[in-house]
Structure formats: C-alpha cells, structure tokens
Design a protein that fits this description.
- Chains A, B: InterPro entries: NUDIX_hydrolase-like_dom_sf, NUDIX_hydrolase_dom, Nudix_N.
- Chains A, B: GO terms for molecular function: hydrolase activity.
- Chains A, B: This is NUDIX hydrolase.
- The structure is a homodimer.
- The first copy, chain A, is an alpha+beta fold.
- Chain A has two helices and eleven strands; from the N terminus they run βββββββαβββαβ.
- Chain A has two domains: about 35 residues, Ubiquitin Ligase Nedd4, Chain: W (Single Sheet), CATH 2.20.70; about 140 residues, Alpha-Beta Complex (Nucleoside Triphosphate Pyrophosphohydrolase).
- Helices cover about 15% and strands about 35% of the residues of chain A.
- In chain A, the strands form two sheets. In chain A, strands 4, 5, 6, 7, 8, 9, 10 and 11 form an eight-stranded mixed sheet that branches. In chain A, strands 1-2-3 form a three-stranded antiparallel sheet, with no helix packed on it.
- The radius of gyration of chain A is 19 Å and the shape is elongated.
- The mean pLDDT of chain A is about 95.
- Chains A and B meet through helix 1 and strand 8 of A and helix 1 and strand 8 of B.
Chain lengths: ~180, ~180
C-alpha cells in the first residue's frame, strides 16, 4: 500500500492522534487507511455419513484437498457466505446447521469460520476453483494431502463431535508456521 | 476508492476474468482491490452478577451505552481482540470464557463477535473512547439507550443463557435499518 485510494497522494506510516498503532496515512488528504483481518467462511457438509471435500484447482496448495470455503463478500451474512462458497466450489446445495469451528490465523490476518451443514441432495461437481469434489468416508480422508491447517482442525473437530454424538463450537488460534 | 494503492493509477469497476462480481481494478497495473467485511469483536464481561457497560465518547452514537468492542486488528486472534478492546475502552482486565454471539451486519459489511468473559478484578475506568464505564445490574440496563442493535442482541442472549443456567452460541443476521 503506497498510494491513497481516495486522492492518489503518497502514503506515510504514522501513528494518528488518539491511536496507538502505526497506520497508512495520506500525506496529501490525511485519510487513514486501516487494514483489518479478512473472514474466510466455509463448511463441513455431509450426505449421510460422507463428507464433501474439494481438490483445489488454484494456488495456494493447488491439487490439495479442502473443505469448500472462501473469502466472505460485502453484503452477505456468514451463513450466506458458506452457502455461496459451497455452491461455487462444489456445485452443491446445503442447509446450514450451526457454526462448528472458529479459527484465528493471526500470521495471515485471517479468521476462518466453518459451519456444519447438510447437503440437500447428493449432486456435487467441480466449480472453476476445484479440480474435483468428492463425498468421502471418514476412513478415506487423505490427511496428508489436506491444503490448510485450519481445514484439518475443522474436520477433526467435526469428526470428534460426530463420534461423541454432541456438536459444539471449537475455537483455535493457529501458531505461526515453523521456520526452517 | 478511486486510485490504486499500489501504483496510484485510476481504478475502474469491472468483473475480472474468472470472477462473477464487479471489483475495483487498476487501469494501469491491473491490480484487483477486493473489499471485504470487517470484524468487530467485544465481550459481555461480568463481575459477580454485574455487567460491564461503557458510554461512548465517540461517534456514531456518542453518549449511548455499549459493550466494550471494536475493530479487530491484523496480527491478533479474536479472543485477543476482545481482551484488548475491553482494556482500551473500560480499563478492565478479563478472562475470556466462550463465544456468545455471532451477528452478521450485511448492510454495514461487518460481522460482530461477542465473547462471554469474567472480569479478573472489579477495577474499571474510562478509556479515550468512553465517557464512563459501569458495572450494572440486569434490572438497571438502559435498554432505550443502547448504542447498537447487535449490542442489544448480545446482551439479551447472554441474559437469557444466564437465566437458563446454560450458555451457548447465538447467531443472528441483522436486517437493514428501516427506511422512514
């Protein structure tokens, strides 16, 4: 971020009056440009015992498996975002049941929400961001080929709840990636 | 949003290839500038039976009562955001218990999260964004002077759970404001 999106002026980094953090402030018009975490919303959707997974056709993690999920858009609710992403990525129609996982990802400035959901019918497909979609049994989940840590967390939380016969909200904050 | 924050070029509104929505796209460098909902995070914090409320010293809704809450910052978790906001606005130290309300506010492009929390001690104060803070009994809550619909929802959800002796997550999507 180098230029002011309002007037095109050069941005400086400074702590505005009454604030305690450095922000991008326009040297010309004074506009303060805040940067805030983004919401990624998706679902663990099932048809009978099987779970809907998609194989990614895009980077990052092309070819790896994920739950249907994506960036929440302006003008929608979190449940609408999960429903839309599932339709876009897996061509699947769902009914939302309840929020299942809330995962903060501070090092990527994101918060991931995963809903528990029920497929309305077993029709699934591959949207433009997916190579394929599958309805998979728990014992066949390719754990070593899951795209993101938050997806593994949400899947394991759902499976533990299902095994226990009781569903709740699971919260987690992911640590920074290990440096090698 | 008129200028590209990367190169200072003029922005145009167009649907990028592979997308289905109009976005701000730079006519010069091609950068796509997405706009996404912001997270507002706060808490219903209690000391014994009393609830922590703050009276706003800033617009919007100057002089009205609110739960401590504010925009989540990059680099923190949702629970850290609630803890920080409570310290900043009410000078109060809390221990987070669990997520209590998730409220989508589509017409303002926001998602509000409220945690249930316990004050670590009864010391409270007024941060720069508050005129005063109080620990208030349920029967004294000034319902007609609550700043925001989401705050009323979160307070009522908490009070209903406390009366029932069982706490859960309450989800809601606020309708657009009535036009007069």
């Amino acid at each position: 971020m180098k230029f002011c999106s309002q007037c095109g002026g050069l941005l400086t980094i400074q702590v505005p009056a009454g604030d305690s953090r450095p922000r991008h402030v326009c040297a010309h018009c004074g506009e303060i440009h805040y940067r805030n975490p983004k919401l990624v919303v998706g679902c663990v959707a099932t048809w009978e015992e099987r779970i809907l997974l998609c194989r990614r056709a895009i980077e990052p993690r092309h070819g790896f498996w994920t739950l249907p999920a994506g960036f929440m858009e302006n003008g929608e609710s979190t449940a609408e975002a999960a429903t839309r992403e599932t339709l876009e990525e897996a061509c699947a129609r769902i009914e939302i049941e309840a929020l299942s996982s809330l995962i903060s990802v501070p090092h990527y400035d994101q918060v991931h929400l995963f809903y528990r959901a029920r497929l309305l019918d077993p029709h699934i497909g591959a949207g433009p961001e997916s190579l394929e979609s599958v309805l998979i049994r728990e014992e066949d989940i390719p754990w070593s080929e899951i795209a993101f840590q938050s997806v593994s967390f949400a899947l394991r939380a759902f499976l533990a709840d299902r095994a226990a016969g009781s569903f709740g909200l699971h919260e987690h904050s992911l640590p920074p990636p290990a440096t090698t």
